[in-house]
Specification:
Number of helices: 13
Radius of gyration: 24 Å
Oligomer: single chain
Distance between the termini: 68 Å
Number of domains: 2
Strand content: under 5%
Largest sheet: 2 strands, antiparallel
Strand order of the largest sheet: 1-2
């Protein structure tokens, strides 16, 4: 274990951190990569994205303080909380911008969180090899993963991708077996309690983030709907009609998606507030939408 500002890092986490540092340094010194990196940074510093990120951070901090007051969170959970926020929490919220209206999205997101935490936190991350082994293992696994993704894109190389996938599965099985053997050999109630807590805390934080993800998804839907409705009517009217549609759909991302998909043609042709009200009445009666002819 390596201690940095009160946070303990395993050999695997230290090796990954070193490799990420190498990639960042390479990106900064390589002339052909610097422009792309600068473009990514400019995108991340967009006022809307930055505001959303700060709101997420503030909300998460409030949740952490609440959990700390209940005795669920302590300073030993700081590293796991930061990693969860950067690689899971933020991704979850921004992902909801485009997927909140999909059926079962939030349920599936929670299931995916559980799978990832159980697989990586419990079986893999808690027991690692020495730093030297982890340092050599990480680029090999990363290269194999990239080979699988690239090979799967082309029908001619798909067999290679399947082979690499099997190889990665065998390596993952070996790592999981190693982790389980170490877990049983070094079992202690205290360590087991810490292990359990290390993935329960991120799960609680993910569940607490659901209202924020829902609001983020609604915001994304509103932005897209306002642009769509304002394309022929003007921005102010487009925003007003977008709000009416959202209230009519009871602020449900799924209902908004169903309504706008079913009555897409009618929404395009609606000329005024009366047409939109008539469309709402049609939706309440359960009548199907019209199909554009020609």
């Amino acid at each position: 274990m390596t201690d940095v500002i009160g946070m303990s890092f395993s050999a695997r986490e230290s090796a990954v951190t070193v490799w990420l540092g190498i990639v960042v340094v390479f990106s900064l010194i390589h002339p052909s990569v610097r422009p792309s990196l600068a473009a990514v940074l400019r995108s991340l510093l967009d006022p809307k994205l930055l505001t959303a990120f700060l709101l997420f951070a503030g909300y998460t901090s409030a949740c952490v303080l609440l959990l700390r007051g209940r005795g669920i969170w302590d300073s030993g959970d700081l590293k796991d909380t930061i990693l969860w926020f950067v690689f899971s929490g933020v991704v979850f919220c921004f992902d909801s911008l485009s997927k909140a209206g999909e059926p079962g999205y939030f349920r599936d997101a929670l299931v995916d969180q559980l799978r990832a935490l159980v697989l990586f936190e419990w079986l893999i991350n808690f027991h690692s090899f020495s730093f030297g082994v982890e340092f050599l293992l990480f680029p090999v696994l990363a290269a194999l993963a990239m080979m699988q993704v690239i090979a799967a894109r082309d029908e001619k190389t798909r067999v290679v991708g399947s082979f690499v996938g099997v190889l990665l599965g065998l390596i993952a099985l070996g790592l999981a077996t190693h982790s389980l053997r170490r877990a049983f050999a070094e079992f202690s109630p205290y360590a087991a309690g810490d292990a359990f807590k290390s993935f329960v805390v991120p799960l609680i934080l993910t569940a607490s983030l659901l209202p924020v993800a829902w609001a983020t998804g609604l915001w994304g839907i509103y932005e897209n709907l306002a642009i769509r409705m304002g394309h022929r009517r003007g921005n102010n009217r487009g925003k007003r009609e977008a709000r009416r549609i959202m209230w009519f759909s009871r602020l449900s991302p799924l209902r908004i998606r169903e309504f706008t998909s079913r009555y897409s043609w009618e929404l395009t042709e609606a000329k005024d507030e009366a047409d939109l009200s008539a469309l709402f009445a049609k939706a309440r009666r359960g009548e199907p939408g019209e199909v554009e002819l020609g």
